Amino acid sequence: MALTSSPEQPLPVRTVARAIGDWINRLGRVWVEGQITEIVRRPGLATVFLTLRDPVADVSLRLTCSRTVCETVGTGLVDGARVVVWGKLSFHPARGTLALAVTEIRPIGTGVLLARLEQLRGMLAAEGLFAASRKRRPPFLPRAVGLITGRASAAERDVVTNARRRWPAVQIVLREVAVQGPLAVGQIIDALRELDRIPEVDVIVIARGGGSLEDLLPFSDEALVRAVAAATTAVVSAIGHEQDAPLLDFVADVRASTPTDAAKRVVPDVTEQLALVTTLRGRSRRVVDQRLDREERWLADLRGRPVLADPGRELDRQGEYVQALRSRGRRCVLHTLERAEQDLTHASAQLHALSPAATLDRGYALVRRISDGSIVRDPAQVDPGDALTVRVAAGSFPATAGTRTQAGTSTGTSI
Length: 415
Known about the structure:
Layout: H1 13-25, E1 29-41, E2 47-53, E3 60-66, H2 67-73, E4 82-92, E5 97-107, H3 110-126, E6 144-149, H4 154-166, E7 172-176, H5 184-196, E8 201-208, H6 222-230, E9 234-239, H7 247-251, E10 254-255, H8 259-266, H9 270-304, H10 306-309, H11 311-354, H12 356-361, E11 366-369, E12 387-392, E13 395-401, E14 413-414
Helix pairs in contact: 4-8, 5-6
């Protein structure tokens, strides 16, 4: 039932406190999960005071329980332990505080933690936070290396010592945080965001030595995993040993098996790089020398060729070749003319042998009738008195046919 009040009729503190107590009592008994951050056992008191902190959010709750309940848990009830408690919330009006009166405490076993981590890993993987496509490759030689690790820890010493041994000029921006316990996640996230805002920091290393599953739980925290996924700078995870695999290893851009391995991955070894440069320089020199030697031999071969040793010799050879072609052409033309002349002479001889003029030269004559120009081959073709033309070798002359004899030949011819 809502309380009514006004400036003229305000409610007393006791009334408000009593109402708060009534509202809280309605909640009844509840199971609550969290992480123990503080245990206070005062001498002479049968009540033990604890603080239960939410592992993700910065929220805590005051617990009270009897010594008997705490002793039932045994050695499992220590700072940083994950537990499930059963109790009833109560409000103390005299102090204005809220507390959970616990009647049972159950430590969360390793198997339960592993099952929850596996469930969280599957959920984050389904969101794509572990995809290889989103991972970035750290630069070959970073301008500055951000290091998030415990205060004066062995992990810090391993990373710094090995990084400076490999590259003495490396710049390391250190952020010391809690690496286990209830404050670890918040401090690591704050340090990560701070380093991510520094332009000179090209890679961030989150390092911690080995430990139990409970000690490494902050590095499987969902809030930390999402903060690493949202970072714009490449992140290297170097948590525990090779067999340790917190969820940070899956979301980080590079996973190092140990802090020492992280130092080897973020900065190059100056000795190895100098040796590599020397090797590459020698290889380049050999390649250039071989190329120059090959080109020199090629030039020497060119200079040794006759056409370059005596350029005029090639011109003379070409001139001789042209002269030979001219002589051959002239001989071919003369031979063709001589053969044509012989053919003409032979044809002329044949023509002269077959010509009627040759017959006339032997004393024969050719007689034609003037009236029709026909050649007289038979005396019967001519009548007495017919005008004739007689052609002999020297020329032609007219004639007249005479009378025939009994034999049929003409008896006389007048010219």
